[in-house]
Amino acid sequence: MRAIREVCALPIIGIDKVYLKGFDVYITPRFEDAQRIAAAGAAIIALDCTPRPRPDGFTMAQSVQRIKSELKLPVMADISTLDEAIAAEKAGADIVATTLSGYTPYSRKTEGPDFDLLEAVIRALKVPVIAEGHIFTLAEARAAIAIGAWAIVIGTAISRPVELTQRFVQALAHR
Q1: Which CATH architecture fits 2-173?
Q2: For the whole prediction, is pTM greater than 0.90?
Q3: How many Å apart are CA 42 and CA 72, to the nearest integer?
Q4: How confident is the model at residue 6, as a pLDDT?
Q5: Could you tell me the sign of the dihedral formed by the alpha carbons of 135, 138, 143, 148, in that order?
């Protein structure tokens, strides 16, 4: 983040994936992770906003409020269900993203982006909603924007070219 901050004036959404034994929450799971992201130059802190236990013992709502009050930064809530999106907005999240749809054991699994969740969240919330998760094609990105997403995040399709290549190989093998 520091290197990007030096060459880019755009706002950086900071995230720290920290895998801790005994906890399913790994997207900025502790306040100390958010502090590290803020110090590196993030303009927005993204964190898991599911109700699952967090390693620092805080609830999702407490985590959101602490980041906003102590770090003075906006929070992007990564959610997997409509109820989580509503709870995150109520807790003070400034942006909500569908990042965790299909990645929690209780959320709907889809082949591609969860457009139904995206549409429901956009209808239910007043804060900006970002489409994130399982977006691999330009058609999927366009569909998310057409539904009303404020922005989209392309993750694996850019950061894991081997996985993207495997998807193409598998799709072509089954034609």
Answers
A1: Alpha-Beta Barrel (3.20)
A2: no
A3: 11
A4: 84
A5: positive
